[in-house]
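Morning F.,

Quick status update on the modeling queue. The single chain you submitted on Monday has been processed. Sequence for confirmation:
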Amino acid sequence: MSWQIAIDEPKSFALLSPSSMEQALEWASKYGDDAAMLAGGCDLLDKLKNQWSSPHYVINLKTIPNLKQIQTSGSSLKIGALTTLGEIERHAQLRQIAPAIVKAAARVATPQIRNMGTVGGNLLQDSRCSYYRGAWECYRKGGIICDAVRGYNMEHAIFGGDRCYTVTPSDLAPVMLALEATAKVQSPRGEQQIAFADFFLLPKDDIRKMHQLATDDILTEVEVPVRANQRSTFIKYAMRNSWDFALASIAVAFTQEGSTLRNARIVFGGVAPIPWRSQAAEEVIEGKTLTADIIEAAALASVKDAQPLAYNEYKIGLVKKLVRAALTEFLP
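Structure tokens below.
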């Protein structure tokens, strides 16, 4: 008989504390895949303790100045990547400018986690699939099968699955896509702006990664355009109101001209490997005045391409319910 003792201690690593972004990038370039970036640590420390990841170097981004700030002036909202979710949750002006961001931050885990977890960490966290994080050799870990397809898949994707049916675990990600935000990224190759519409990766694009950042890229800031008469909301459904990841969530944003909706965007979390934009539902409400009939039509359109697995068909009804609930908030 063999016994396996649970691992709860990381392998040895060197903690590097850069005094500047330049120094962090120098180390990131030097150590490459053998380094990990530490922000709030909510995801990384769990991976280190369980030895799912064992880098020899951890670069502590918390020692770099100016990565923790919220700027609300002008035509854009800028949030530093190391701003904590708790700081967003408590920011009164941000609640007026972009309520969906505050609502999403406030639904992450627990107050203790929100006081540690950062914007960047929430957006960049890895898959939470129990097969991927367990002892199975799934496609995402370099194996030859998706264990979730034939296993317990209650929490998995109904959109966008292709060999891997994990879901995006980020509560902020659907909001960033709905608000047409961009990510500011620095690397040894320079600085770039990446629209969140292009930021996340489907399994068919790269089954080993959730997003397109390289190991030596550092997310430094999120920029959200601020538009006149813009309205937004976020709703999350989870098994419990604290701690749990979303079984499904929705972010809605649009500008309002009188009673008419313009530039409508409806994005789901927890139902696809990436934040899943429902253009079919958007088309139903674009240029319209919201009514109960319009809302119901949008709810039906939102799931027309769903492909549930054996145990997650309930997500179809849940997605429709979230569309109804989110859009009903905006009824006169």
